[in-house]
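User: I've been trying to design a sequence by hand for this structure and keep getting stuck. Would you show me what you'd pick, starting by listing the structure so we're on the same page?

Assistant: Good idea, let's start from the same input. This is the structure you sent:
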């Protein structure tokens, strides 16, 4: 130990890598001085020390970009703050493109970067050659130049952050191993170490690849696994120098940079190798795995192509260092669902250096403030349930995840590994029907259905055949399933479609205090008769959406809450953490116990009426009602509600009866034009109807006024966030969600496209799809104004959406483009 170990502290941080030291520093900046960092060996000795030190600012979302920008700004000033050199050099970075598809991706990236506040210039091969004279450029089509990117020496950044934290009162102790997390009554209370017990109010696991096993000992599930990551350092090469920009050739899975008068060449291979130790050794500090020249043979061959000087280079070092990866290539941040007061900052997927500075700041704000200070859903540890921490699953998945860094960021790209982990009761039946499955939160969900060339319904898209097999040919434009999707979309609008929605989250809240408890959290009035449905938001203290829910009141003391597929762990956690000791209510997850069938379209009533004796007339079964009905010989809770903008019902059934109900509906619907339809159709249908989705249009940073959902608030009762919303109502707001329809029927929108108003950026699309009813692509997105926004401001704009680098004129709709008066829903 470098100093004595206290017996108690306010917060103990387990792990002295760059993330743990960043967190310690930022906690002290927020006034928490009683901070203890415990490192089992020496600071930065796990993964941090052998990281390549690349600090790029641009990421795929606004939040992640903000995190990386904060990191770069912090590192640039660390030496002045602490007197400890960190090797920060703003050398810029180049991302080269040798294919048209990669160039398209760079154009999409450059368009979004303008809104994110990161300078990106699209340049030609001649500029690449000027900035990186050692590169071969004759096969390049172009590149993106990011002048504000840089590099650091990771070990020294960690030491500087530790110095800064110590200077503000934190204690940093090396040589102390944490062997367990203490907890009582569902709350972390400290840690057990190799040198005794330390009591604490807050415990934070920043232990990198050791985090999963340590968390499992206290019943917490953290889905990360170490993967081997390779790079080599050459001996001196003529023409190499330290200020060379960071270079990336994602088509060849390479990155490269200067290292003094030598070069670093690294790789993110499409298929990597998990480090398959049963347990990461405690003393694995400043160590590497054995060089794997065989696995590095292809990257080296590609490297010699891109940098001809490597052909005859000698190598001083082969770095084979294990790094933590997660199932979706995003890191893990925040308070765990299983234990209060236990936080995580781990699983950084090779972006730990670039993200640690900002991640430490926002995790510190979360700890001090009790909730995130901005939308961190992308990295929230609660996006995963316990199923995702299975070691066999992780080993199968992470070998693909490392390579995703440089694989083309295709729209709707699906993982290829570790599939079929969670299946609906209809999975095999839908597979036989031609379902092409995607995965969300582990659930296999049908995205679209293959159709043979001789399908009874001809392709609805001229000169575009059906995809006959359930496989995707990725593209930035229309993909091979375009006609299949059109047929499913139109079936819902023109006849009737059957959707498997079983993966949607389903939570039960019951007990004598179920109503007053939910009323404290929800903006809508839930005091409705049993058998009624209420759409409502749950808000944070800032008035932002923590979730949006469909609440079905089943009885005086019982509510069924329907939420998104990705959200049940997070939503259940939010409900449970707001239960008071004297609340007579309980919350639990029913997702896996119930199947859900969506019967949607103008023929939905005819279809259901043919298989039930219940009266489904508009008078007897109005919109917003829910009650049990027979579906042939089985019974379902039928909820008359829709997410696709059509007459329809969602049928909630026990899992064991879902298959039978599906067969009854399929048999009865043949003469009505019934079609199986997937989640791509749900996406396009709901966008035409301007139905919002949490995680896209709705987030903790978006309020109901901005999202156009203030109509769903009952101001006559008190609820979390009400005061903040009343204040916003009085002062106004400067952003508004709107729907856009392209005027050109050709392009496709996917989301994350720049929105222009009179040629100037005002926001970006949150979701996009092709609207086959509208005959053009449709998207939603927030329009920003410099001051208070108004309907007049929105209507007076000349709008365009940037597609593949070019603006495409678009029409803004403040109401739904399809059926704005809800006549079809209420029929």
């Amino acid at each position: 130990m470098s100093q004595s170990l206290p017996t108690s502290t306010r917060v103990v941080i387990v792990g002295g890598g760059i993330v743990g030291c960043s967190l310690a520093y930022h906690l002290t900046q927020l006034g928490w001085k009683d901070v203890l960092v415990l490192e089992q060996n020496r600071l930065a000795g796990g993964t941090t020390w052998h990281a390549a030190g690349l600090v790029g600012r641009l990421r795929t979302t606004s939040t992640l970009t903000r995190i990386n920008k904060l990191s770069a700004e912090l590192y640039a000033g660390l030496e002045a703050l602490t007197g400890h050199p960190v090797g920060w050099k703003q050398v810029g970075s180049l991302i080269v493109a040798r294919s048209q598809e990669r160039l398209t991706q760079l154009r999409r990236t450059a368009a979004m970067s303008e809104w994110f506040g990161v300078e990106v210039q699209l340049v030609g091969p001649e500029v690449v050659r000027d900035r990186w004279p050692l590169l071969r450029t004759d096969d390049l089509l172009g590149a993106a130049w990011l002048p504000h990117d840089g590099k650091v020496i990771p070990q020294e950044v960690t030491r500087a952050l530790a110095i800064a934290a110590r200077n503000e009162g934190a204690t940093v102790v090396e040589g102390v191993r944490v062997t367990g997390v203490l907890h009582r009554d569902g709350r972390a209370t400290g840690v057990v170490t190799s040198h005794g017990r330390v009591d604490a109010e807050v415990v934070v696991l920043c232990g990198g690849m050791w985090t999963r096993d340590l968390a499992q000992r206290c019943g917490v599930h953290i889905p990360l696994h170490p993967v081997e990551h390779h790079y080599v350092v050459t001996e001196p090469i003529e023409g190499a120098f330290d200020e060379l920009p960071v270079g990336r050739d994602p088509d060849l899975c390479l990155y490269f940079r200067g290292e003094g008068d030598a070069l670093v060449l690294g790789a993110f291979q499409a298929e990597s190798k998990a480090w398959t130790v049963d347990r990461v050794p405690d003393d694995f500090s400043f160590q590497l795995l054995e060089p794997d020249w065989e696995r590095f043979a292809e990257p080296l061959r590609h490297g010699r192509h891109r940098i001809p000087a490597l052909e005859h280079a000698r190598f001083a070092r082969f770095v084979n260092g294990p790094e933590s990866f997660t199932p979706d290539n995003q890191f893990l941040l925040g308070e765990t669902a299983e234990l209060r007061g236990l936080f995580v900052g781990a699983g950084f997927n090779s972006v730990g250096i670039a993200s640690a500075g900002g991640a430490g700041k926002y995790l510190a704000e979360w700890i001090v403030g009790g909730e995130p200070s901005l939308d961190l859903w992308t990295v929230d540890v609660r996006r995963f349930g316990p199923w995702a921490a299975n070691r066999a699953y992780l080993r199968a998945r992470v070998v693909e995840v490392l390579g995703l860094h440089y694989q083309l960021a295709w729209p709707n790209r699906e993982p290829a590994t570790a599939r079929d982990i969670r299946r609906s009761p209809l999975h095999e039946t839908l597979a036989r029907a031609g379902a092409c499955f995607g995965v969300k939160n582990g659930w296999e969900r049908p995205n679209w259905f293959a159709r043979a060339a001789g399908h009874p319904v001809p392709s609805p898209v001229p000169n575009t055949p059906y995809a006959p097999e359930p496989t995707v040919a990725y593209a930035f434009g229309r993909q091979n399933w375009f006609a299949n999707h059109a047929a499913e979309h139109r079936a819902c609008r023109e006849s009737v479609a059957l959707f498997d929605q079983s993966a949607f989250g389903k939570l039960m809240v019951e007990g004598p205090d179920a109503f007053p408890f939910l009323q404290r959290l929800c903006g809508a009035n839930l005091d409705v008769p049993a058998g009624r449905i209420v759409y409502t938001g749950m808000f944070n203290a800032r008035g932002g959406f923590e979730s949006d829910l469909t609440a079905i009141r089943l009885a005086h003391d019982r509510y069924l809450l329907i939420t998104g597929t990705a959200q049940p762990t997070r939503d259940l956690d939010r409900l449970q953490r707001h239960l008071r000791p004297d609340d007579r209510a309980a919350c639990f997850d029913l997702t896996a116990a119930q199947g859900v069938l969506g019967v949607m379209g103008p023929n939905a009533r005819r279809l259901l009426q043919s298989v039930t004796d219940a009266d489904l007339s508009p008078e007897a079964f109005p919109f917003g009602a829910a009650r049990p009905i027979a579906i042939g010989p089985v019974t379902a809770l039928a909820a008359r509600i829709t997410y696709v903008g059509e007459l329809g019902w969602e049928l909630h059934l026990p899992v064991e009866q879902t298959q039978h109900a599906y067969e009854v509906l399929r048999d009865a619907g043949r003469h009505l034009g019934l079609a199986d339809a997937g989640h791509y159709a749900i996406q396009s249908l709901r966008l035409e109807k301007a139905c919002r989705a949490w995680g896209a249009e709705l987030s903790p940073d978006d309020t109901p006024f901005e999202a156009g959902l203030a109509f769903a608030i009952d101001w006559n009762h008190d609820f979390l966030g009400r005061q903040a919303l009343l204040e916003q109502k009085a002062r106004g707001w400067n952003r508004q969600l709107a729907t856009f329809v392209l005027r050109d029927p050709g392009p496709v929108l996917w989301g994350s496209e720049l929105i222009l108003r009179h040629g100037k950026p005002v926001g970006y699309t949150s979701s996009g799809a092709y609207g086959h009813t509208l005959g053009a692509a449709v998207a939603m997105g927030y329009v920003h104004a410099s001051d208070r926004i108004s309907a007049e401001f929105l209507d007076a704009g000349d709008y365009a959406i940037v597609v593949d680098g070019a603006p495409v004129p678009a029409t803004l709709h403040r109401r739904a483009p399809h059926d704005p008066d809800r006549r079809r829903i209420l029929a």
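That's my pick for every position. To get oriented when you compare it with your attempt: The mean pLDDT is 97. The first strand starts at residue 8 and ends at 14.
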